[in-house]
Every structure is written in C-alpha cells, then in structure tokens.
Amino acid sequence: KGTVIGAGSIVTKSIPEFSVACGNPAKVKRMRK
Predict the structure, then answer these.
(1) Prior bond of 25 cis (ω within 30°)
(2) Record's InterPro entries (predicted)?
C-alpha cells in the first residue's frame, strides 16, 4: 500500500507500507510522507 519500487529492482523480502525501495536486491531508501 503506497510503496514505490524502482525500475529494475528485484524484491526478495517484504517492503514496508509507504516506503521507497530500489536496487538489486531492493532496499528501503526512505519513507514516504
């Protein structure tokens, strides 16, 4: 819900709601307001 995943990112685990994740593997970079 409200999560943004960067293009080309590979998600290997759960990502918190309202966060921004990118990379390989995807890591949370920041939280959305």
Answers:
(1) yes
(2) Trimer_LpxA-like_sf
* Contacting residues for 24 by C-beta, under 8 A, at least 6 apart: 8, 9, 10
pLDDT in tens, 1-33: 899 999 999 999 999 999 999 999 999 999 988
- The count of domains in the chain is 1
CA count, 13 A, side-chain hemisphere, 31: 3
Residue 30 identity: R
- What is the residue range of 31's domain? 1-33
